[in-house]
Amino acid sequence: MAKVKAIRGMNDILPSSTPIWQYLERQVSTVLSSYGYNEIRMPIVEQTELFKRSIGEVTDIVEKEMYTFNDRNDESLTLRPEGTAGCVRAGEEHGLLFNQTQRFWYQGPMFRYEKPQKGRYRQFHQIGVETFGMASAEIDAELIVLSARLWKKLGILDAVTLQLNSLGSTESRQVYKADLTAFLEARFDQLDEDSQRRLATNPLRILDSKDTNTQNLLADAPVLSDYLDEDSKSHFAHLTELLDASGIRYEVNPRLVRGLDYYCKTVFEWVTDKLGAQGTVCAGGRYDGLVKQLGGKPTPAVGFAMGVERLILLLETLNAIPEEERSSFDLYLAADDKAAQQAVFALAETLRDELPSLRIRCHFAGLKNINNKARQSGAALIVLIKQTEQGPVASLWNEDALVQSDIALSALPEMINSAWQ
Ligand code: ATP
Ligand code: MG
């Protein structure tokens, strides 16, 4: 009978990779807690309505990427395509947003029906950060500075660049939208098919079209920065001042618009040229209008989300994962002969009592080729126990050679400890 396979674009993360995921997650949570951010955990499924109202009906996500289904009650539910909407929903529902400042982060799977390829999957993982109640550019800067600190900690800062833009207020963007639409309507026949469709629904998205013809056409199009309102202009100026003072390099990219409807003022992306077409590893911006749009009181907000798979691809490409983070245990404990096998189980427990940070894996399978098996296990240390007339004794090996043989079991913890240093 044919075996059942995983769903296309939804990947198993195997034990050989999970140490790298855990390493990344650990670095992220260390940096975030050093800035006083709190983790929030939301459900993976929400009412479809939530995404329609927040992301916008005429976006790629809502138009063609959502996993939507009716449950047994005939209620329309959707697997979350992103985390911001659910985070706002949860914050509102529990009264955490009104008249307060909040710094939240979350992590977990997101679902989008896209064409699977390198760096683009149907189930993928994001680590998201959302802040509420802060209108001034300091918090935008904090998000960017903390992400830069994370890249530095991960050893990838030199491989990413920061792209920055301001979308202005919703009102100023309306004026721009109208002018851009008029400009593009006059050149409708020269647009690519996708852009022709977007012209009626979401003309701003045409700005980040990948089509060369369309891009050439856009060279003479009206530029969003000429339309910015005074408030957005000074917000952006303050943000760049703070980034300059922090030594963060950025490129102002007037074409950067982001896919979702709810952004205003600051938008940014961290981009790498090391991963081909899927080069955006982290993206975010300000969304002052969203809380109100979802039924709350007006609440300024800004956040970002990183793509975990893309970050891991980047770490792999740059060879930036410390060797010791790839392994899941340090010491392999085995018996050399049948008589000594009994000692393994109890000795492992004693070692775990005395050396709690050491990760020990016991050999409980057959004794054939035990030396080779222990070597191939990838452990940094190997302990082999054998039975003698005086009772069990151990030999200790490191990756290169024998450290010592005939060690009394009582002397083993100290011996391991010094070999481990
Ligand atoms: P893209 O332009 O690559 O489609 P996006 O604008 O749709 O990205 P966001 O919604 O801003 O992406 O999500 C934030 C981050 O999540 C992206 O920068 C990326 O790193 C990651 N991401 C988004 N979609 C996917 C996916 N299908 N597979 C893997 N990672 C993804
Ligand atoms: Mg996308």
From TrEMBL:
Q: Which CDD domains match?
A: HisRS-like_core (cd00773)
Keywords (A to Z) from UniProt: Aminoacyl-tRNA synthetase, ATP-binding, Cytoplasm, Ligase, Nucleotide-binding, Protein biosynthesis
Provide any one GO MF term from the record: histidine-tRNA ligase activity
Localisation per UniProt entry: Cytoplasm
User: Where does the Aminoacyl-transfer RNA synthetases class-II family profile domain start and stop, copy by copy?
Assistant: 1-356
Ion transport keyword on record: no
**SUPFAM superfamilies to which the protein is assigned, alphabetical:** Class II aaRS and biotin synthetases (SSF55681)
**For this protein, what reaction is catalysed?**
tRNA(His) + L-histidine + ATP = L-histidyl-tRNA(His) + AMP + diphosphate + H(+)
**Pfam families, from UniProt?**
tRNA-synt_His
User: What are the EC numbers?
Assistant: 6.1.1.21
Subunit structure of this chain's protein: Homodimer.
* PANTHER family given in the database record: HISTIDINE--TRNA LIGASE, MITOCHONDRIAL-RELATED, HISTIDYL-TRNA SYNTHETASE
**Family to which the UniProt record says this protein belongs:** Belongs to the class-II aminoacyl-tRNA synthetase family.
What's the protein here called?
Answer: Histidine--tRNA ligase
Identify the species of origin. Answer: Neptunomonas phycophila
Classification lineage: Bacteria, Pseudomonadati, Pseudomonadota, Gammaproteobacteria, Oceanospirillales
